[in-house]
Each structure stands twice: as C-alpha cells, then as structure tokens.
Amino acid sequence: MPVNKPKITFLGAAGNVTGxxxxxxxxxxxxxxxxxxxxxxxxxxxxxxPFKFDPRTLDAVLLTHxxxxxxxxxxxxxxxxxxxxxxxTPATADVAAIVLKDSxxxxxxxxxxxxxxxxxxxxxxxxxxxxxxxxxxxEALLKLIVEIDYEKKIPILGGIEASWxxxxxxxxxxxxxxxxxxxxxxxxxxxxxxDVGRWGKPILKDPAPPIYADFVAIExxxxxxxxxxxxxxxxxxxxxxxxxxxxxxxxxxxxxxxERSHELLWELNRLQMENKIPRIPVYLDSPMAAGITEVxxxxxxxxxxxxxGLIKGGHSPFDLPGLTVVRRGNESAALDxxxxxxxxIAGSGMCTGGRIKHxxxxxxxxxxxxxxxxxxxxxxxxxxxxxxxxxxxxINGEFVRVHARIVYAHGFSAHADRSExxxxxxxxxRPPAKLFVVHGEPSAARSFADxxxxxRGWKVEIPAWxxxxxx
Length: 471
Prior knowledge:
Elements: E1 7-12, E2 21-26, E3 29-33, E4 60-62, H1 68-71, H2 74-79, E5 85-88, H3 90-121, H4 135-142, E6 145-147, E7 154-157, E8 160-166, E9 174-183, E10 186-192, E11 215-219, H5 230-247, E12 251-254, H6 260-273, E13 282-285, H7 287-298, H8 305-312, E14 323-325, H9 329-334, E15 343-346, H10 356-363, E16 370-373, H11 382-387, E17 392-395, E18 398-401, E19 405-408, H12 418-425, E20 434-438, H13 442-456, E21 460-461, E22 468-470
Parallel strand pairs: 3-4, 4-5, 5-6, 10-11, 11-20, 12-15, 12-16, 13-14, 13-15, 16-19, 20-21
Antiparallel strand pairs: 1-2, 1-22, 2-3, 7-8, 8-9, 9-10, 17-18
C-alpha cells in the first residue's frame, strides 16, 4: 500500500498559462512547487481567492525560477502564516527578491491610481482595489529562502529529496526532480519542468534535464507551434529600426525584465557591431531590469561559453552604446515627448501593468511607430488584445486607437517551442509512468499531448485546475 497515498494537486497553470502552483503530498509532508500570480484577465480573481490549502500546514516551497507567474504569490503565503523554507538556486533567490519587491511596489501604486480613478468615475471594481501584499510581506518571505546549487540533491522533509537542473529559460531557472517514499521499500520521482528554455540561445546554458523520472509535469506554452530562429528575430528588429528611422516613429518593445530585456540588448549590440543598424537611442525603461543586470554580473557561472568569452574579452553586451537606463517615473513619462526615433524597452512583457502602458497609449495611435512583441501574450491580457489585431484597446480606463504597426519576433522567446519540448522529453532514457501536460492554453496543451501520445505512445494527461491525482 502507498505510504500516505502520494498525490499531486494542480492549483495553477492547469488549463491556462500563468499561476504555476502544484501541491505534492508524500511521506507525511506537504510541499508546493512554485506559487505564481495569475496574469490572464479571466483568472485574476484567483490571486485574491483563498488558497486551496492552509499556508500554515505547508512544509516547504520548491521554486523553479523568478518569473512573477511562478513566484508572485509567495509573499501572500508568508502573510498568511507560512513559516517553512523556500528552496531555489542562488540566482533565482536574487531575481525573486527584485521581482517581488517590484511587484509589491507596483501593486500599491496601481491600487492607489485605480481607487482614485474609480472615485472620479463613481464606479466600483469587480476585484479588490488593494495590493495583495506589501513590501513588509516580501521581506518576511525572503528570510525563508534557502539557496541550492544546481545538481545537488537535498533532503526536504518526510523522506522527500529534491535537486535542481538547468532549464535554460531565464537566469537561475531550473527543472526540479523530487524523490519521495512510495511504498515501504520503494521510492518514486516526479520531474517538474518549470519553464523550459531553448537550445543555442545567447547568454544562458542550454537545458539539461534529468534522464529519468516516474512522473513528469511539462509546460506547453508553445506546444502547438514552432518559433522562428534567433537570426529571423534579429532580422525583424533590424527591419523595424530602419523603418522607424525613416518614418520618425518609435519602436516599442514590451519585455519581461528578467533576461528577455538583456537578450534584446545583446541583439541590438550585435546589429550595431556588424554595422547593420546605426546607433540609435535605446531606453531600458525598467528599474527592475537594471537590478537584474547586476544579478547577471554576480553569477557568471551560469553563462554559456559564448557569453563567457565575450566577458573575458571585455565586450559585455550590456554595455550598449546609446543605452539609457530609465529609473524614475517622471523620466519614463518624458520619453513619450522625445522627438527623435528611439527604441523603448519596458515592462511588463504581457502589457498587464507597469510603464509599458503609457508608452502604448502614446504610440499605438501613431502609424509611424512599431510595437514589437517578443514573448508569449496570454489570453485575456492587453498584449494579447493588441497582438490579435484589435482596432481599439482599453488602457488605464481610456480607449486607445491602434494605428501603429504590430510586429512579432517569436525567435526571442525564452520558452521552448513544440519541437524543443519534444527534444527535452527525449532526454529521458525511458518513458515515465505518466506525463502531465500543464502551463498552456487548452488548445496548445491538447495539441502537444496528442503529438506525444501518437509519436511516443506515452500515457498523457491534461489536468484541470484543482484536479487532485493519486500517484
């Protein structure tokens, strides 16, 4: 008979892309893998809903990486009584500290602005106009973090052990292999992919998953499509910059501050060094991205060989000629009055909040400007609405006409595409007992699951939000 009936409950990124959270109960212990924020509009109320577990009863959190949809609700855990440990890689610890402090600040700022706007308009919001947590909750959470090196197996509790393996997605990202007691003399393993990166991308090492697991949960963000390669993405950037130099507009790039912005700087640097584009003002409008740059500098061990070679040769891609890092809010607002064509990189990547919104308000009505999407736009986000070709979108309570040209450069994506996800699974030396397809919209998850069942003959399940499955 199983010991304590090991089971997994899917509490986020199941039937959708964001809100990653999985509750594993085994060996008398209760741990969660990730605790992320929901970013799609139809699911945002889940951020305020009571947890489907008592945070005080959790023994530990295993964190795959520092993106907000994987770590964004961790301070709520601390706020509501969680006092266990949060295990993650050293780089993820540094990234999460920056991301969560920024999240707390933005929530408090956005809540204040929304309350003021609703008061002027005499209406109420379907969501609480309060921050989920504040900076004091973030500080309490950060005290619980324990840093773990890649490939090092550590005991968690109740016979559960875990190890972190390079995922190649962002700085510090990992897939986590959890080993747990199953029967009296038997142990089983569960591999959580986290977000899988891509092979051959600049800066970071390639994914390096374990070669065996009894159960696997794999993301499927791009499970139904293939990316263009990095050269094609660079070509799109080159063409767009030449276009705005001719038209007098701006190139606006909504970007995740963690790693994606730095990859864009890498590509801009390369285009200038190869004389494919002239020097042009580039604004990195993100205090968080500036902080992430320091994290990069503090963790050279995670660079791939190409990046290490550049650094040793004194050619850091982060030292881009013409680059201005914008830190203050008034300086950010002033960018929309700049007359010369420029590149503005700002968060958030899905346009759900942050400084990108006022840049979109200023540039979407301008046919001479270009909006370039370089990452996934989840259903129900402002980025998705724009990328789908809406003629008008609502930003900060106002309707804005869309006349700017919309460009896609999926080659910059930090997520593996359909073939790369299959390649990642191909590292396993034998099939798992079951593969759970998560972290994807229903159509993408179904498409990927069908391909794996047909090509590999594996047992595949697509869990729904809230599903609890005995292992």
